[in-house]
Design a protein that fits this description.
- The chain is an alpha+beta fold.
- It has one domain: Yope Regulator, Chain: A (2-Layer Sandwich).
- Helices cover 33% and strands 34% of the residues.
- The chain is built from three helices and six strands; from the N terminus they run αββββαββα.
- It has a six-stranded antiparallel sheet.
- β1 and β2 form a beta hairpin.
Length: 124
């Protein structure tokens, strides 16, 4: 895609988004009335696709790591502002539209699966 502006334009063409100034917010409806919050933001030459799982105090870190390792989504767990998140980072210069959409979808489904597996409900 080349630039952060290209990424934002592409995502806006394909999904309903909310502009956060330094990133984009997306909300996906999933089966069973569940939903998943996803953020995209730029860090240098990279685009990060991230989705919150739970406040850190509600998560057994060992179980979260084991559960996330069973998935097939690229990326991994991290802590951001007191939240356990799942994030995937992609290089802006080489990312193609379908790859970006696939990363967004995989992160969305991975986090929903982790939430279900850990019995965390659907707060995000």
């Amino acid at each position: 895609m080349g630039t952060w502006n290209d990424v934002k334009a592409y995502v806006r063409q394909n999904f309903k988004t909310e502009d956060l100034g330094d990133g984009l917010k997306l909300v996906f409806g999933l089966d069973g009335g569940r939903s998943q919050l996803v953020f995209l933001y730029q860090t240098g030459a990279w685009v990060t696709v991230a989705s919150p799982i739970s406040p850190i105090e509600k998560v057994d870190a060992n179980m979260a790591l084991v559960t996330s390792a069973m998935g097939t989504a690229p990326g991994g767990l991290a802590i951001d502002s007191g939240l356990v998140i799942y994030a995937c980072t992609l290089y802006i210069d080489s990312i193609q539209g379908p790859e970006l959409i696939e990363a967004i979808e995989l992160v969305t489904l991975a986090v929903d699966g982790i939430e279900k597996e850990l019995g965390l409900g659907d707060d995000w």
